[in-house]
Amino acid sequence: MISDFETTKVYFSQLINDEKYQDDFQEIKAILEHSNIPINFLPKTNDIWARDYMPIQISKDKFIEFRYDPDYLQGNQKGYRNLKTYPDLVCDALGLKTIKSDVILDGGNVVKSRNTIILTDKLVYENRHHYSKKTLLKSLHEIFEVDNVVLIPWDKLEPYGHSDGMLRFINEETILLNHIYDEEKEIYQPLDKAGLHIEKLKFSEQENKNRNWAYINFLLMKDIILIPKFEIVEDIQALEQLQQLYPAYASKMFLVSMKSIVKNGGALNCITWTIKAN
After folding, report:
1. What per-residue confidence (pLDDT) applies to 84?
2. Buried b / exposed e across 115-136, counting CB within 10 Å, b at 16+?
């Protein structure tokens, strides 16, 4: 399984070039270019959340294309279905060969290391008509080629049910938990059972919870970490903590504006698709 720490190439939806995102995106672009990381764009997309609909890279030339059919794009509210991207169209335009899976899964609900994946149990609910929990877990072990598939409770206040807003890997044995789940002990149980050590982000301010949840949704690649920035006091607190937790990245870690993008419910990991290129 290819982890985020190994990825060398980053893509964004072409829709990120929309004027409403430019204050944020131009800052991201400048830092990536300064770090000699080229920016690539995904054609034929219908929203900016590239992580969710793009395939997941297992090995050099093995990309798994999951069924992208999230319940939050199936409502009766006008425009929901128009936001759905069809990953096969995007991959065809890129000339990327994929292996298709019938498992319904958003990429934002996969936090991965080389031998472990962590997902919320919303996955079980979304696949209930075709898979029992047991057969679903067996399938995930085989698809991802990992020993450990860890299910954590779905935060029902977060309708997307994504694990990448809850935690991230620091290394193979340690995860970083979002501070807003500090008291949610039921999340700890499956992580402890998997033998994972838990570190936590901590902040001195509480009034900015509608934004400071998003620090955990940073972009992590082989040679860089980009952290969301909101022009609030917690920006520096997040940077300093992450520099301590990821010391190898201390000089390759940058704050970038997310003020316009976070209003739509996501941040840096959500808007990027990263792979290990040849």
Report:
1. 92
2. ebbbbbbbbbebbeeebeeeeb
